[in-house]
Amino acid sequence: MQKDEIRQVILNCEVEAGNFSVGGEASSRLKSLLHKLGISGQTIRKIAIATYELEINIIIHTHGGSLKAEVSPSEVRVIASDKGPGIADIEKAFQPGYSTANQKAREMGFGAGMGLCNIKRYSDELHVETEVGKGTEIEARIYLRESGDSSE
Amino acid sequence: MKLKEVREILSAQVIVEGVEDLELISGCGADLMSDVLAFSKENTVLLTGLTNPQVIRTAEMTDLSLIVFVRGKQPPVETIELAKDRGIPLMKTDKPLYQACGLLYSAGLRAEKLAKLK
Hints:
heterodimer; A: alpha+beta; Heat Shock Protein 90; 33% helix; 26% strand; globular; B: alpha/beta; 6-stranded mixed beta sheet; 5 helices
């Protein structure tokens, strides 16, 4: 992506810890917005899944945080930030099947330990910054291909 | 396989209506959200015992065409309302997951491909 490309923030909202009843609304809203921008269905699905996993992770694993999405002609960036507790072991966190989800989350069908793997699988670039006791920021970048993708 | 054929094969009860002639290409049986999110394809029917509203969000993210709740599970009103709002048809069958998947598979509904979305 060129350094001087214009990026527009199209989503910026708070995500409340433990709130499963509104969980997924931000991802759903982003999906609708991307559809309006004329981005291809397959690319939207990748972004939607990655965003949903990020949103659910904030709900399940953190003290609360926010979800932001930025669009430029060449890519969509989804940034999930939270107020803690931070990821103690990043390598383990990315291991398929490894989960620190609580009982409530597991009863709802979460906690399979595939969240971060899924986000990585569907992103073209993934950046993770975390500090135990402070919080985490995860940025997923999905490229918009030449044909069929446009954020104009 | 058409949506109405799924209903017939599984002797399913319609909870939220869908297009009867909707063409389904593949099926997925899962009770874990992230497993559904790992493999996704449109025109797919999800068979599951998960009835909480997040299953509707999962379906929305992965463009699932139909959800069938197995083992006679009745979803709560929040799930039904969200499905109506998002336009996702719901059904329920008394059959257990294994049998329901087997019946659809035998009738020609193929498994979801484990292909990457790239």
